[in-house]
Design brief:
about 200 residues; 6 strands; Rossmann fold; disordered C terminus; four-stranded parallel beta sheet; alpha/beta; 5 helices
Length: about 200
């Protein structure tokens, strides 16, 4: 598939382009802040214009910082919510109707915090809201061929751990390939029983 990437900074996009350089697929990158509706919408419009209606979209933006229930002011909580929830809603609002009109597609939203944590309050609250938002979008668009799933990562992501990013990528690929009668709007990834070894090549598909 051709690949479109959105990130806030050019440095992040440069790193992604370097990592993808061995892969012979068309790649378009564009700057956009997931917490800014106009920037994000503009970035998505640019990618659709360049690459066409996507077959799959992964929303993976989040503010991952610890906080207690009454620590943060209202503006800071709003800023985190804008990235953790509203950015995903903006993305789904843009691409789900396009996918439905184009015969279908898949939207995978990275969730987390399957259990609330008093030391990570904003993320606990926002990820619960994110799961609800994905459920509603799935209810509305699954009959039109759009596969929408929130994948809650049940631990800290780290190379070589049970939550190795390569293993998580394999899980996303598995979910993407699910037949329609197995679609689920809410899944929890509980980790790989065998951590990936450093330098592990991707599994063949």
């Amino acid at each position: 598939m051709p690949l479109g990437l959105v990130a806030r900074s050019e440095a992040t996009l440069d790193q992604a382009r370097a990592a993808l350089s061995p892969v012979a697929v068309p790649t378009v990158t564009v700057r956009g802040d997931a917490g800014d509706k106009d920037q994000l919408t503009g970035a998505l419009d640019h990618l659709v214009a360049e690459l066409g209606v996507p077959g799959v979209v992964v929303y993976n933006a989040a503010v991952v910082e610890g906080d207690r229930i009454f620590d943060l002011d209202h503006a800071t909580r709003q800023a985190r919510y804008a990235v953790n929830v509203l950015g995903a809603l903006t993305t789904m609002a843009k691409v789900a109707p396009l996918m439905a009109d184009n015969g279908g597609g898949t939207i995978l939203v990275t969730g987390g915090m399957p259990h609330p944590n008093q030391y990570v309050v904003s993320l606990s609250i926002d990820k619960a809201g994110l799961r609800a938002a994905v459920q509603v979008v799935a209810d509305q668009f699954s009959d039109r061929g759009v596969h929408v799933t929130c994948v809650s990562i049940g631990g800290r992501v780290a190379p070589g751990s049970s939550f190795d990013p390569d293993q998580i990528a394999e899980e996303y690929w598995r979910i993407y390939g699910q037949p329609r009668d197995q679609w689920q709007p809410d899944l929890t990834y509980k980790g790989s029983p065998q951590a990936a070894a450093p330098g592990r090549p991707p599994a063949p598909h």
